[in-house]
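B., you asked whether I could sanity-check this one before it goes into the benchmark set. Here's the sequence:
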Amino acid sequence: MPMISIIIPAYNVGQYLSECLESVINQTFGDIEAIVVDDGSTDNTGAIAQGMAARDSRIRVITNNPNQGTHRTRMIGTEHATGEYTFFLDGDDALSPDMCKELVEEFKRHPADILHYGLTVIGANDLLEEERQAFESFNNAPTPDSTGMDIVRDIYDEDYGQHVDWRFTQRLYRTELLKHAFSLMTKDRLGRSQDGYECFVVSALAQSYHSCKSCRGYIYYYGRGISGTAMIGASKFDSYCHHFKADFDAAFQFADSQHSENLRRYATGFQRKATEILANDWAIRLSPEDQKAGAQSLASVFGSATACREIYRFIRDKAYALFDASDTTTSIDDLYRWIDIAQSLEPVSEDTDSETLRRYREMRRVALQHFRDLNDLCQNRKRLSMNANQSIRVFVTTHKTVDIPESNLLQPVQVGMRPGNPRFSWAFHDDDGENISDKNPMYCELTTQYWAWKNVDTEYYGFCHYRRYFNFSNTVYEENPYGEIMDDYIDADAVAKYGLDDRTIADAVQGYDVITTRYGNLKEIIEKHGTPKAVWEAAPKLIDEDLHRMYDILCTMHPEYKQDAIAFLNGNRSCFCNMFIMKKEIFFDYCEWLFPLLEQFEKCTDMTHYSKEALRTPGHLAERLLNIYLMHHKRIGSGWKTRELQCVHFTNPEPEEKLSPLNVDVVPSSIVPVVFAADDNYVPQLTTTIYSAMANASSDRFYDVVVLQRNIAWDKQERLRTFFLQRFPNMQLRFTNVDRQVAGVKLTTNNEHISVETYYRFLIQQVLPFYDKVLYLDSDIVINGDIAELFDTELGNNLLAAVHDIDFLGNLNIKHGLRLEYARSVLKMHDPYSYFQAGVLVLNTKAMREQYTIEEWLAYASNPEYIYNDQDVLNAHCEGKVVFLDWDWNVMHDCGGRVANVFSYAPNDAYDAYMDSRSHPKIIHYAGYEKPWVNPDCDFASIYWRYARETPFYERLLKKVVKANATEPSVGGSKTQRHERAIGEDNKLRTIVDPLLPLGSRRREALKAVGRVVRGRR
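And here's what the prediction gave me:
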């Protein structure tokens, strides 16, 4: 009994059979037998086989009479096989000398029922080299070992996505298994899909499967025999339909005989995949005149829903090709004709099972949508060809309104289109033409790349982001630890600095094949993780298995890239951001390589429960795949001329927010413009303040409430807008980002209780240029009066109106005289007792614009000698031009006993007026460290909470109370929240200082004043 049986079905292969049999008898492993089954050949096949058998006793010849077809011929050969293992060899193919030896050795190492080996493909009959390579690459792609039902699942389950081929001649079988399988197969003659059926049965019965694609001793002559693309007639195609149907029926019969629902599902997968192969013959091998008859054959054999689905599949796919005019064999007229054919075969619902009908309807929906998109593309060709005469087109991916440099070469593309989203008139759209716009949450900027690939024709394709651009200039700038140049705004200065103009871009691009961002050394940047693999693993929201899965997919679909993937992932260099510029042929090659990889990743990855960041995994993977692609072509010597450019990251690409006059149907004189300043953390307090103002506002006035901010989250802005506009129809709430106005200015404060937002009041005259008078209010106040009354204060030629600062006035009269000296020598005030509190201001913005610029105000505020930066600036530069308001418009609460310890030192009339205002405050100001949300028992806290509990952020304020009281030290029986202390908690000086100078005490305040003098400030 030989070790290996080789079964050779032979029909009219006389011109190749001698080569085939010579390769068999010349095997270095001799324990074999060859069984040639002559299937009724009409040429010299039988004579050649008999002659070779006479030379070598290991060759036996069996003759079929009449011809029975390949399936029956294989079955007969199997019945006569006596070897322990068996494989099939087509009569027009051959074996390398060590083929059998390698198979036996591999089986000894990995015993299995089925051994799946590789091929050496040789092109025949003028086959194009790229076709040969593609065929060889596909059939040599690694496949995973499996056992039991997983073997058949991996091949036929549509949802599993392993894409294992069903080539019957590319496997070595245990003969016992093969004989059993053929004994259960149909004895009928089968046609072109017989490999799929035979592999289905054998795989379903096998218990173990091993893949060894590195064993490539089977020499396959691709192009010999019958061509798979030769034209056929309608009758021939009709016979194909019946042959395929017989294969499918046989597969289902076998599945039923095994009483397995899984096998029925896999048989359905076989039918669907093979039907697509058959339909490909309809589209490629039938003439336009025969296609209608061919479609009717499909419908009569497989049902109208199946036939129509396949036709719509071609409409969908050909519409894709027509977007970029890459398909010269199909026209839009062909699509119209195919739609007519499909519509003539529309299925009847009751005659079709629900799943088949669902699949048909979904394909029809997608196909017709793409067909409509194609029509739209044709009708809007002028718009889509904007700047199409440019040989360099660098697409800027954006999902929101941003600043784009004035350039014909930098062309914005709006991505992530959703129903109801505004379409930017200044941008292309990634849902025009053939697109994957709906995948933007996963693919990020790759939807732009796909759109450009399918819809744009140019010489150079470039891609950057609305935040990130190339530095096209010849100047190298400092980079951050992540390898990026950081800048603020996309303005004229940035265009000049980084060469974001057409001429500089063209000069930088011309002559190069590929341009990327600079390759960074991962041992030095991105937290020094060292390798791309380590960078991925360090990303908390990315999943390590996804990188491994992509690696496996890449090695399966493109095994020639394996060593490049290993070299990149374990190396220490990478370029970033999916930014590049490529010549057309390279870009197209890259897309044809990249997107099928990502599509396969999608198919075999369940991202149902992924986080928003993890859902972007395909985009993250593409960043790595770009590096692998470029590394591969460098290794194989593609000879591309490459260049690296720095990446510029703009932190504020959004256009400058410019407020406009209100567009409301009210008398202009009735409008009360009110401005607040806050950050994201202060939103609950801001809400309470605004609510208190509107709760007491006149219904006869309209309040234009503007919040100056830089980081208040959009969802919080929306929540506030909804809350207020539902309750107060006489107001409009607007948020404006003031980043640009304060860019480049060092915003610091010399007081621990003052935030940088305090500077924003200096911006009001510029942010609201259409108002000559504006009310400014701090966000740590509550308002019991109508602020319209406050706004109506007559200012004349004065710059502002404000209330005296009782705290400052008290300090002026303290014995040491430090504050008085400070007011005279630092603030240069002629009358220090005219010092006002700046938390409530009525601003004469017209007069302020005439006297000071924003730059001047911010420069004054940067004076390091000032104690209360913003307030001191206003007092120093507005003295003598102030209208003083009644004390009840800014009643300071008693913070840490300051009424007795500080305020009582103020001039008698001022102190009496202040004390009187406490009984009827129109505005209560919680200035200082003691706030209601820190100490709920502080002075006037009950009034504050009366308003706060009506707001949507009430619970957040309560949380602040709990946090402050759980973590902060007690002062006078109450908890207080403070900024970072000058002396740390664990500093030994605290054991001396704290007992002698308790926090909040008068002695402590006096010491702090002395400290300011020592530091040169008062």
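One thing to flag: The chain has five domains: 4-225, 261-382, 384-652, 668-885, 980-1018. Otherwise nothing jumped out at me.
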